[in-house]
Amino acid sequence: MNEMFTKVWKKAVLSVWLTLFAAQLFYAQSNWNAGKSGAGGDLVAVYFTSAERGFVAGDGGYLAQTDDGGRTWTKQALGTTEDINEIYFRNDDNGYVVAGRKMFATGDGGRTWREIKIYDPKDFRQGAPEFLSVRFADKKRGLIVGSIVNRDVVVDSLVMRTDDGGATWARVIVPSRLELYHLDFVSSSRGWIVGDDGLILTTTDGGMNWVKQNSKTDKTLYNVDFRDSEEGYAVGGNRGVGVILRTENGGATWETVKTNFSKTFLRVDFADDKNGWIVGYGGTILRSNDRGKTWILQDSGTKDNFYGLFMMKKYGWAVGAKGSIVRYQR
Q1: Confidence band of 38 (pLDDT split at 50, 70, 90)
Q2: For residue 132, what are the domain limits?
Q3: Interacting residues of 44 by C-beta distance below 8 A, sequence separation 6+
């Protein structure tokens, strides 16, 4: 009896230990802490130019900046009530905000902003443009992507391109009429765009011409992040089912990364070659430290959807619904 009891006891202890070990792997030490942004609506975008200076933006033209690492935020007036979809800086001084049909630029690190004329309304008789993402491949060459909308229905894709630092813009026709959500560049010539129905487009000439890549999914792709011309990631989902894509050859082939997490993913950002994060619905934050091959769920402390993400090696931010904001500190 004693021997039998010992065996049962050992099995019970082993079972408890394995359960605790699995829980530890599932909820990795997150280092995420809640902050206060002061925003009344949803926050969609976040960008930091240093550990101390950063910006958050979202519904109703809300834009705020911090100069003390997020301890306090100061609201900035853009003069628009359109929802801000993205903040992007190509260096410490020169940054851009896209808000619905408008784009704003700064040349002094975000202290002041000016509206930039992107298009003539008569050039879009079939509907109105909706800008969702902006990137600059170099000092002069930049692109904006989104869609053309008629009565809340997407009727065509939209890519606008500049060769003179944003002074003038011209439309680029791409091989798709689907909505385009996000773009990324790794050099003055190489870039990618993701959109509806698993759409991935790539360019090798700075955005003049685009070709489709086979994503092997029909789920909407909301965000793309490339580390270099070969290694990249895209995330998205439909109806609460998320998808993570990964490539090691510039998108010539994409593979789906299998996880146990079903939420729709909205942003992916790698701080270096190995360490990356994903955010999405339900307060989801995932982390990888093996080049995106496996992902671990982190405790965000909230169930609010996350829409924006910005990560560096030692710090990062995620923002989302109802003005929620959390900070990562290593």
Answers
A1: confident
A2: 31-329
A3: 57, 58, 59, 83, 84, 85, 86, 307, 308, 319
